[in-house]
Design goal:
heterodimer; A: 423 residues; alpha+beta; B: 423 residues; seven-stranded mixed β-sheet; five-stranded mixed β-sheet; 42% helix; 21% strand
Chain lengths: 423, 423
Amino acid sequence: MQYTKKELKQGINLHFLNTCKFKTNLVAVFLTLPLNKETITLNALVPSILRRGTSTLPTMEDISIRLEELYGSAFDCGIEKRGDNAVIKFYIENVNPKFLNTQDEVLKSCIELILDIVFNPVLENGIFKPEYVEKEKETIRQLIESKIDNKDLYALERAIEEMFKDEPFSVYKYGYIDKLNEIIANEAFNHYKNIIKQARIDMFVSGEFDNKDISNYINEKLEFLTPRESQILISQGNEVAQINTVFENMDISQGKLVIGLRINQKDEDIKSVISVYNTILGGSSNSKLFQNVREKNSLAYTIGSNFIMQKYSILIRGGIEIENYQKALDIIKVQIQDMKTGNFTDEDLKIAKKYITNSMNTLQDSAAPMIDYYLSQDLFEQNKKTIEQYIEKINSVTREQILALANDIDIDTIYFLTNEGGK
Amino acid sequence: VDKIENTIIDEKIYTCKLDNGLTIMVIPKKDFTSKYVIWATHYGSIDNCFVLPDENKEIKVPDGIAHFLEHKLFEQENGVNSLDALTNLGASANAYTSFNHTAYLFETTDNFYECLDEFMDYVQNPYFTDENVEKEKGIIGQEIHIGDDSPEWQLYFNFLKAAYHNFPVKIDIAGTQESISKIDKEVLYKCYNTFYNPSNMVIAFAGDFNENDIVEEVKKRLKPTKRQAEIKRIFEDEPIEVKDKKVEKNMEVSLPLFLLGYKIVPETDDIIKRHVAIEILLELIVGKSSKTYHDLYEQGLIISEFGLDYDFEKKYAHLTIEGQSKAPEEVINKIKSKIQEYKQNGINKKDYNRIKKMLHGEYIKQFDSVDKVARMFISDYFKGINSLDYLDAYENIEQDYVENVLNEIFKENNEVISIINPN
């Protein structure tokens, strides 16, 4: 796999991942903006409106039909948080026509379609169609309300909201109902125009294609865009003042426990150490959390931890019997303490490194995670690393580094989703 | 070693049946860094009543036992847990149980043969004790709770319970807290000895492999066993009609969830053609480009695409259409009247060809992932299908045939409605 990046204009980049091993091409467009409570609802609404129609394919039905004609090409869009930034994302995936016995230029048609969706929406009287705006407000409203449907994700979102209260990262990615109610078509369209003018733009194309041909094609299509100062927020996150414990009731049969840890060392180089630390603590089935909470004490089916890289934080999550709250919490605390006192073996360290190496190598077998990796490197890292360099970095982590780090990690938030009966 | 190849999509599969009855499949994926192995036995949650081959005696086992066995197989006599051992080698390992099979798998980029040693060793060497069986009940109890709190899971199993009078597909794969309490080591050994004979199993390899090497490497690691006659599985007769027409339940959800399902008499001859026909019909009636979907979306009656599925095996078949709506009954009625309309007016040729093209592309996409492709071949194998045969069906299926299927499957007395209402 060959990765190349070209800056088309200031703040607008074209990335290629060339490989022959896939049957498909994946094309992605990312618009990155600072995250904040005031604009998140509009940012979430915009891709939802854009997918409704382009100037040439003015309805969602037209777009669906077009995608089917392009041999089941698939389009998707949405919004996600990356640290304190909002990333509005668009994807289109097509099967390479050589496997379909056709000469059709499927990739170029897909690039044209995705760029039309992002940059060439259907308009009415010079703004978004009010009908579409209203409809998509309703869709986003239901998405916001459906937050409670998946209890695991709900608990995670609530814990993030509590833990990062004073930071942009606490916002819910689909925004807020009260803000949504106020939005009118005119405002949504003006916001969209600002995004197109100001957002950092990254476009990725992966698979088998002629770089020069595709590069020229895209360049021409993006000619109208103007250079922009990119505004990526690289936040360090707050320090722990005191542990915030939150209980919330819901009609559920299994309690959901989320524990947020803050890391008080914030330089870029420490990320690889945190990654190894997290794997030993709760990243794999060999981890301390899995072994002690699940295997030794049978308290949970799901238990583990995730490293939120851009926020220098770790979130531990588990599903437990409600009455076992204190027991599970105590065992988890012991594991965190064990990391501080060095109660883990050299073998644990070796295994964690292998685990990360394997997942990084596996990444190279699919396009979407590769794109995700290179986007993150490009947006956030001063010293950009290839996958090989990243693996090298992981393998150079020492026991001493982990110990030093472990003593700079503290519990910030304990969140428990329980039912009326529990406490 | 037999080879089946499709030169257009440039994919091939090698299969080989050993003297002990084990089937080996090799799907070469050159240039992929990951190697994926999955070993499955034709034994799932529905196999709860059978004749013990040695004693020639009929036995009924507790619900959820195939899944319980899957959990317990990782534990070894020397105290090693094979899931950890594989993780320690850098692999990511897992297992799952479905209605009709149990599968063990790992994926790795490194130490492949060491991983294969551990993998084939643990699947062939069960070690159950009173103590380790007891311990697992707590963990599985929590896994069952996850399903209890999942609206989608409840929606689907309520449908199955309503559709089937006797057929055990209606039983939760993991069983219930009560049924697993009855499981002990003796019954686990009985199930293991019956269903984990190589003649009831298939092992598939996807990745950069040489087929002849793999066959030799597998042979080296197999314990000597006698080929076993086909296992006699006992199922009560299942009426064609559904048990209940409608089932509702209240849960903590933001919007009602609904499922419209049809129980179908399983096809024995043209199973692939039948499958493709049903896929085409579902797409035509309520798929992404259908008028029904877009009308309902415009009216605010649904917020996202329908979930469409056709699940079938030799002994059962049903199709399901799922979604979320503030007015589920209204949506279901619209879908049903659309089905009637299609039955009366037939299918539009242009739509038909486009959907066929789309499904063809979707099918090819699966070959981009070693795990998807291996799992596809395995689950098709137990249905008596070679996955590559789908290509021919996507290209050549006739509209007349699809229209016949349409008239045959959507019948009033095969229909079930399942709804989850907000509290």
